[in-house]
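anyone seen this seq b4? input:
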Amino acid sequence: MELYFVRRAAQVRVCADGGANRVYDDMPLLFPNEDAAHVRRRFKPDVIKGDMDSVRSEVLNFYSDLGTDVVDESDDQDTTDLHKCIAYINGVMPNLDKSSFCILVTGALGGRFDHEAGNINVLHRFSTTRITLLSDDCLIYLLPKTHRHEIHVNFSAEGPHCGLVPMGMPSRRTTTTGLQWDLNDAEMRFGGLVSTSNIVKAEKVTVESDADLLWTISIKKF
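predicted toks r here
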């Protein structure tokens, strides 16, 4: 269902290779009383990009015939399909105000762990771009160490469970407000403390750290 709402609000809609299969298969399920082909035409992606090893031929042909731009980068095996898509979006929308620009990624979590790790790595490789990984259960985005972050929590749609995870390097000092178990110049690292299963207690959470952190918060199902 989140795929439907994200699709409606998006300015550009890019499928990472096999993600086109999911759009093709799942969108008609949201409109069981409508003709499946009509639904697929209405919700076609603007671009399909990747190494083309996952998308089914009938899906690729269907969207290509509708005018979807297919960008085959099978010659590049050093970056993930998500990386290719983020690079494409940054390239076609270079003049957007990055303070209000956000890329929402569905289907990035809940599958193979190496795929999930690769998708989280994309957050770090594009640390100046606001990217949110969205699943049925939670969302994840990067909090770069260069900023003091204010996170405004919408309790009608997210929370209360949350976490702060140091990725890439330990955090020697992390301080938060607005959580049930706030951190006060706390050290976090794998093999030591990691702030998981914390609880949001305020509509505004602040985070300040000397290392990049992943922020994750549960989302509510409707």
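The chain has two domains: 1-136, 137-222. The domain at 137-222 is CATH 2.60.120.320 (Jelly Rolls). kinda curious what u guys think
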